[in-house]
Amino acid sequence: MQIWLKGAKRFRFPVNPPSYEVTSERNIETVNVNALGEVDLAGKRNLKTVTFSCFFPKHYDAGYCEYRGLKSPHACVKTIEKIKNGKPAKLIITGTNINFRVRITSFTWSEEDGTGDVYFTITCKEHRNVRIGTSRVVQMG
User: Fold this and answer.
1) Does the global pTM surpass 0.85?
2) Deepest of 28, 44, 66, 100, by most Cβ within 10 A of its Cβ?
3) What angle do CA 88, 90, 93 make, to 5 degrees?
């Protein structure tokens, strides 16, 4: 499995998280109809959200690092911030059906144990392009 963010910069996460969570919801409104009781009015689906936590290691370790030539943890943070503040990026988790455009809605990071590793939690929300059609006014007569 590889995890990529491809936006203003291309970024491959150096360590795979132990798990990730995908939230997929649908809007359903319920109304009370006098003769029927409560009924549901199904709407379209909401945007998917993907969240995971992991760390950016200061030093390469073949036991958990996905590749050699790691950037420093703070360079990783800087890249994620640049992607977050830019246009939508594509989130790809290979071997899954996660391959869609997202915006980073939350990125929290910290140093915890004096090793220089940076721990983080990232949340990405699916991006949906909005296409607004145009119309013309036709004058009669």
Assistant:
1) no
2) 100
3) 145
Amino acid, res. 68: R
List residues bridging with 88 in a β-sheet.
none
Rounded Cα–Cα distance for residues 12 and 83 (Å): 12
Residue 79 backbone phi and psi in degrees, to 5: -65, -45
Q: Report the alpha-carbon distance of residue 70 to residue 66 in Å, rounded.
A: 9
pLDDT at 13: 96
DSSP letter, residue 46: P
Collapsing DSSP to helix, strand or coil, 4 comes out as strand
Exposed e or buried b for every residue in 21-43, given b needs 16+ CB within 10 A? eeeeeeeeeeeeeeeeeeeeeee
Confidence (pLDDT) at 141 = 64
Phi-psi region of 28 (alpha: psi -120 to 50; beta: other; left: phi over 0): beta
Phi, psi angle pair for 74, to nearest 5°: -75, -25
